[in-house]
Amino acid sequence: MDRITIVGLGLIGGSIGLALKAAKLHSVEVVGHDVTRSALGDAKKRGAVDRTEGSLREALKGADLVVLAVPVLAIREVLQDAAPLLKEGAVVTDTGSTKALVMEWARELLPPHISFVGGHPLAGKETPGIEAAEATLFRGAVYALCPSPSAEADAVKVVVWLVENILGSRPFFVDPHEHDGLVAGISHLPIILSSALVSCTTQSPSWREMSKLAANGYRDISRLAAGDPTMNRDICLSNRESLARWIDACINEMQAYRRLILEEGPGLGERFNKVWEERARWMLEREGKVKEQGLDIPSAGDRITSLFFGEWVTKRTRQMMEGPPRPAEPKK
């Protein structure tokens, strides 16, 4: 491979570029393209690319691998413009947060001699732009991959190489429609919830006073509302049906909490206990520690009644972060 071109030099594209440069692939040229002149200059200044091109034609010339790191609804136009410019046998991948529409566009617009492998890194942060890019942004993250049916096996291997060896992520092969249904609940719905919280509170007549009391909890939950507005809009509009179903489910859940609060019965405490246990299990399973180390999660009732709960949390958190204890070194 001689040349990799990144189209879109924001947070994601810039971070991929930085990871490629950090890998010191001396025989590979990293070329960057963006429609914003300032992004081109900043990417070069930060060392995310070897060369920048304001012309898509020049950026794609001779590219073996092309990474489309643009907002989802911009991908169709980029594919349309890029199709006649790509060299035969080139591999194209994207980083869009939804996959079904993107895969459909790729099938419709790309010629048969181009292999397309859809991608979605489940990583990021609220600060957009090349200024916030990090070479380690994707390290340890799950990276969803959706190869098109016509993609060559070697093309898929190239994208897996990028994901594993360069970005340090974990490939997760998934059907595009299944992907969109899954991420609607755990990735896209949180954006709506975060944005709705900010809308609800900042539009209150009491916001001036409330804002003085807003602390870590409000900051944490509202973090996703600080994401790139264009990207958030595109995510929602490109996954409408799945996201609408999850919003309906969330509305039903909120109504259930409302009823439990007004009833003043035991149901509310039981609900909080259940979600505490579910989240604790997810946090441990996320690190692969439940099966690996045989960790047992106490029920919320046990937690409340135990005088040693603080010790349990400290111990399990340390185990989760550090892994199993290292064996003692043999005596000489």
Q: Uncertain segments of ≥5 residues (pLDDT<50)?
A: 303-310, 323-332
CATH 2nd-level architecture of the largest domain? 3-Layer(aba) Sandwich
Overall radius of gyration = 23 Å
What distance separates the N and C termini?
49 Å
**Basic shape:** elongated
Count of individual helical segments: 15
CATH topology descriptor of the largest domain: Rossmann fold
Tell me the structural class.
alpha/beta
* Count of discrete domains: 3
Number of strands: 8
Average of pLDDT: 89
Biggest β-sheet, characterized? Answer: 8 strands, mixed
The residue fraction in helices comes out at 40-55%
Main sheet: strand order: 3-2-1-4-5-6-7-8
Strand content: 5-15%
Identify the CATH homologous superfamily of the largest domain. Answer: NAD(P)-binding Rossmann-like Domain
- H and E order: EHEHEHEHEHEEHEHHHHHHHHH
Query: What assembly state would you assign to the polypeptide chains in this entry?
Result: single chain
What is the CATH class designation of the largest domain? Alpha Beta
Can you give keywords for this protein?
53% helix; Rossmann fold; 6-phosphogluconate dehydrogenase C-terminal fold; 11% strand; 3 domains; alpha/beta; 332 residues; single chain
Brief summary:
This protein is an alpha/beta fold and 332 residues long. The protein is built from 15 helices and eight strands.
Protein architecture, described:
This protein has helices at 11-22, 37-46, 56-60, 75-82, 100-109, 153-166, 176-202, 207-213, 216-221, 229-237, 240-263, 267-286, 289-293, 300-305, 309-322; strands at 3-7, 29-33, 51-53, 65-68, 91-94, 115-121, 142-147, 170-173. An eight-stranded mixed β-sheet has the order 3-2-1-4-5-6-7-8, sandwiched between helices. Mean pLDDT is 89; it is low at 303-310 and 323-332. The N and C termini lie far apart (49 Å). It is α/β, with parallel strands linked by helices. The chain folds into three domains: 3-174, NAD(P)-binding Rossmann-like Domain (Rossmann fold), CATH 3.40.50; 175-264, 6-phosphogluconate dehydrogenase C-terminal like domain (6-phosphogluconate dehydrogenase C-terminal fold), CATH 1.10.3660.10; 274-322, no CATH class. β7 (142-147), α6 and β8 form a beta-alpha-beta unit.
